[in-house]
Structure prediction request, 269 residues.
Amino acid sequence: MTPHRPPATVVLTGATSGIGAAAARRLAGSAGRLLVHGRGDEPEIRPLLDQLRAAGPAEIVYARADFDRLDDVVDLADRVADVTDRVDILVNNAGRPGAPRRRTSEDGYEATLQTNYLAAVLLTERLLPLLPPSGRVVHVSSATHLSATFDLDDPQLRRAYAPTTAYARSKLALVAHAVRQAAHYRPAIVAVHPGVISTPLLHAMFAIGGDSPSHGGANVVEAALRADVPSGAYLDERRIADPAPQVRDATFRDGLHRLTMSLLAPWLG
Prediction:
């Protein structure tokens, strides 16, 4: 039997639909406290919150934030700190498909990169003081990153834009961040491809079917709780796999880190 970590306090972003909601339902049955994030106002997602509270013993806390604004990410981190002084597991699941046409966030960054990558890194950095050495950060990535490359000279995709390119390279950046930061963070950090999952996000970019959100949610929870997954691992569903070649390039990883810290400098405090 695969060993699992008993969760205490879990922060799960993008928890109100799709894979995130499926993962939240599973975690509500075992976590001590589950802080779920979404973009909607609390009355809109009250039925889900009621389901989560009925699913198990976890204390359920909801926090709203729009990752199109990095100030909201900072506010979310502050909200978490108001609720708890310890985060055992942080799951960065919030994501968006590549927009049909290139658009920028309210902060002026290519929107897919901000929501899927920059917001996750910023939230992780802001919550690091609450994560114990035994904690874990999970970046929900995608196997689409295997076909992507990230041009450090064009992080905003000004030269050539396509929705699938924007999405895939944001997920490549997440995997690269996990691999690099495994040597620098006290808590473990891993990235997971949850599977090809039938959600509005998938169908916004690809004319294919997929597995159920519960399948993807189970894979995310497995990545969060399995004690035998080493820091820096990339999981293809539940199997440790090699990430994209660019991710394995230490020079690229260091360059991406410098770029990321530069972009996030106004919000890092």
